[in-house]
Each structure stands twice: as C-alpha cells, then as structure tokens.
Amino acid sequence: MLKLVIGNKNYSSWSMRPWLALRANNIPFEEVFIPLYTDQADKDRILSFSKAGKVPTLIDGDVTVWDSLAIIEYLAEKFPDAKLWPADRAVRAHARAISAEMHSGFVPLRSECGMNLHRPIRAVALSDDARANVTRIEEIWADCHARYGKQGPFLFGAFSAADAMYAPVVHRFRTYAIPVKPEAKHYVDAMMQLPAFQEWTRDGLAETLRIARFEDV
C-alpha cells in the first residue's frame, strides 16, 4: 500500500494537496503523520523518508516521491482511471499551467496568510502584492467556471489535480476573512462541501499541537 508522510493537518497546506488527491479519488494509502517544528527526533523521522527533509513524501515500494506536485503527477500516472488531469490535451495543459502557477507563485499571500485552521476568523491588512494574489486567484477560479462550469462545480468540472493544488487557498480565504467575488464564490462552496476536504478539516481542528511561529498572525 502507498504511504503518504504528512505534517500537521492544521498547518501543512503542502501535505493537504496530495492527501486530497488520494482521498477524493478513494485511492487506498497509509497516512504517516510526523509533527512539524517539534524536536530533532521528528526531523530525523522526516529525513528517514526523504533527504529533502520536508513533507509530504509518497512511498510506493522502492519508489520515493517528494514535493506535492511531483506526487500528484506520479499518482496521475499510476492511477489513470482517477483522471487527476483532464483528458483533453488543451484542457490538461490549462490545468497543469494553473497548478504550476500555484506551486511556484502567490508567495505574498502565503507569507501573510499562513494556513492555520484553528485561527479565529478575522481579517488582516494585506500588502498590495498579497491583494494582487487574491485577485489573480479569483480570476483563475472565475475563468475556469466560465469555461468548464457546465461539466461540474470544480475548476475543470470534476475534482482534479488542480483542485488539490488550490484547496488550501479556500481555508486561507475563510480564516483571514478574505471576501470572494460572486463569480468565484461558487468554487469555495463546492470545495467546502467535498467530503475529503471536510475530513481533512475535521482532523486538523482536532489537533492540539500549536506551533508558536504560526500563531502570531
């Protein structure tokens, strides 16, 4: 069985992405939880799975894959029936492009609005760059809805790898009380109704470990 090494569900947005890709598609896997920013023993446990020293990491027999997007790509190849990427080449290219944009971009929003499910819902003053990130994400969601909305409520109709990449943003928008334009709000609603998203959220809220560096924002 596949193993997915993850960090705290309350904080680890990168762990959430491949976890959702697996759970939303009913792909069996063993979850290996290692708390982040605790002590050297936990750091060494993470290093025992991947020399990158970060989560998530996927273990499939003698194959080890680290980095969220690389894991999702591996899963798409291993489980083609899950249809993690759209079948149409042009649509698939679109899905990969916005997924890569999330993977490498939106740094101001990430920095100013770290994922923390326990955080009381309240707004913060965002920088111009972070506000531009919000606008761009809304634009992506609205554009996908206009193109593919007749096929389903997610970015490309059915739940896909792109949705796994954007799911943590829904939590950030909620936690930091970031208003979402009507043409993009449907996506927030669809994601929050996804059973796998709800499961991750429940598990994250049930965690008691607090990381001080993420509680001051």
TrEMBL record:
Q: Name the PROSITE patterns for this protein.
A: GST_NTER
* UniProt keywords, alphabetically: Transferase
- Can you supply a Gene Ontology BP term from the record? glutathione metabolic process
| Record GO terms (molecular function) | glutathione transferase activity; maleylacetoacetate isomerase activity
Q: Which Pfam families does this UniProt record tie to the protein?
A: GST_C_2, GST_N_2
What's the domain of life for this entry?
Bacteria
Q: Kindly list the residue ranges recorded as spanning the membrane.
A: none
InterPro entries, alphabetized: Glutathione-S-Trfase_C_sf, Glutathione_S-Trfase, Glutathione_S-Trfase_N, Thioredoxin-like_sf
Ranges where the GST N-terminal domain occurs: 2-83
Which N-terminal residues, if any, form the signal peptide? none
* The name this protein goes by in its record: Glutathione S-transferase
